[in-house]
Amino acid sequence: MLLKGVVSAWLLLEAAIAAPTRQSPLVLEKQKSPYNLDHYDPYDRKFDSYGEHVQPLPMRNGKGTDMLGPRNRDRERQNPDMLRPPTTDHGTMKNMHWSFADSHIRIEEGGWTRQTTVRELPSSVELAAVNMRLDEGVIRELHWHKEAEWAYVLKGSVRITALDTEGGSFIDDLEEGDLWYFPSGHPHSLQGLSPNGTEFLLIFDDGNFSEDSTFLLTDWLHHTPLSVVAENFRLPPEVFKELPEEEKYIFQGSLPGPIDKEKPAAFKKSKLQFTHKMLAQKPKEASGGKVRITDSTNFPISKTVAAAHLDIGPGALREMHWHPNADEWSYVIRGRARVTIFAAEGNARTFDFMPGDVGIVPRNMGHFIENLSDDEPLEMLEIFRADKFLDFSLFQWMGETPKRLVLDHLFATDPKSGAKFAKAIEDAEKDVIKEHYSIDDDSYEDEL
Ligand SMILES: *[C@@H]1O[C@H](CO)[C@@H](O)[C@H](O)[C@H]1NC(C)=O
Ligand SMILES: *[C@@H]1O[C@H](CO)[C@@H](O)[C@H](O)[C@H]1NC(C)=O
Ligand SMILES: *[C@@H]1O[C@H](CO)[C@@H](O)[C@H](O)[C@H]1NC(C)=O
C-alpha cells in the first residue's frame, strides 16, 4: 500500500511538471521514478534508487508486475539494475559483484580483518583482497607470504617495515592515498599510528590467497625445537621460555617513535622504494574527472600490480573501454556506480556498486562505469594483476579508423546520422572520463 502511495505520488509529481516550461534534464531525471507500468524509457537511463529512497520494482516499459513475496528491500535499493535490468542485458553471466559487508570478519585485539577472495567471489581469480583496520599502536605481526602484496591506505596513518633480498631494510610512514608493495616472500610488518590508527585495502596477486595462511614470526618459533631456536640465536634455551604459545597476528603494541630513532644498529637502507604516494600524483585531467595511474613505470617495484584511481564527476561516464592484459578488480571508495559488462556472444549484464563493494571485469570484456549517485562524487580504484595499466578506448578506436569503414558498419542505412557521428569522433582524443552529456536535451520530449 505504502509503495503504491509512493508510486502515485511520483505520477502526480510527473503530471505537475508536464507543464509546457522545459525542465533542466537533471531535474526531470530526478523526478521520474521508473518503477511503474506507465514508464517507458527506450534509452535505459540510470536511476539512483538508493539515493532517491525509491523502492525498485521489476517493471519495465509496460512489462513486469509488483512483488508479493518476501524481499530484502535494502539490497534491492542498492542493486536497482538487478531488479530492473536495462533491456540491453542478455544471457547468463557469472556473478561479478561482492560487498565486503558480506565477508566474514576476524576480530583481534585492537583491530580486524576481512577478505574477498576466489572463495567469496569465484570470478576473482587473479587477485584477492583484504580490508584491515589497526587502531593506534596496533601491529599486524612480522610475517611474509607467497603472494606479492599491494596496498592502498583508505584512512589514517600506518608505519611499515620490510627487508629486501640483499639485506637492505625499509621503514616508512604512510597516509590516505599512499601505496606500498612487497614482492613475494619479502618479510614485513604494519602498525597503526596516532591518533586513530589506520584502515587499508590489501591486494594479493592470486585469487586463492588466504589472510589466515601467512608465515608468522611467532607461529614459526613456536613450531621449532627450542634447542634449534637457542642455537640459531646463540643463546641458552631458557631465554625463550616465555615466547608466545600461539600466533599474535594482530595485537596491541607499544607506540613507535620517529623513524630515525627506531632504526636498529644493523639497519642498512634498501635500494628499493617500497612505497608510493598515489593521491599526491598529478592527475591526468579528463573532461569529466581525474585519473591517477600507478604501475611499474612510476612505481618500479610494483611488477605484478597496476592500478588507476578515478574521481568521476557530476553525471560523468568512465568511457566504454576494455583492458587487454588482465582482469579488472575494482573497489568503490565513495559514491555509487552502474557498470554493464559485455561478454561477447550477445551476453551483457549490469551491476551496481556501493562504497566497499568489489567488482570484476574479466580481461577484454567491454564495459563502462557511470556515476549513479546524486549527492556524492564517485571515487574508485581499478586494479590489475599486470606490470602496466593498459586500456582500449572505443571512442579513440572509432576516431582513428577510416571514416568510410566505420560508417559502413554503423550507418549504412542512415547517412544523415552517420555524418553527425563522423563529426563527433573527429578529434579521436581518448577521454578516459567523459563529462556529463544530457541525452534528454535533444530527444526526451520526442519520446514522451
Ligand atoms: C584454488 O585452490 C584450489 C585448491 O587448491 C584449486 O582447486 C583451485 O583451482 C584454485 N583456484 C584458482 C582460481 O586458482
Ligand atoms: C580520532 O577518533 C576520535 C574518536 O572517534 C575522533 O573524535 C577524532 O576526530 C579522530 N581524530 C582524527 C584525526 O581522525
Ligand atoms: C553523479 O552524477 C549525478 C547525475 O547522475 C550528479 O547529479 C551528481 O552530482 C554526481 N555526483 C558528483 C557530485 O560527482
From TrEMBL:
Source taxon at top rank: Eukaryota
Cofactor note text: Binds 2 manganese ions per subunit.
Record NCBIfam families: bicupin_oxalic
Designated name of the protein: Oxalate decarboxylase
Residue positions binding Mn(2+) 1: H143, H145, E149, H188
PANTHER family: OXALATE-BINDING PROTEIN, SLL1358 PROTEIN
Positions bound to Mn(2+) 2: H321, H323, E328, H367
Cofactor: Mn(2+)
One Gene Ontology biological process: oxalate metabolic process
Pfam families listed in its UniProt record: Cupin_1 (PF00190)
InterPro entries for the chain: Bicupin_oxalate_deCO2ase/Oxase, Cupin_1, GPI/OXD, RmlC-like_jellyroll, RmlC_Cupin_sf
MF annotations from Gene Ontology: metal ion binding
Active-site residue numbers: E382
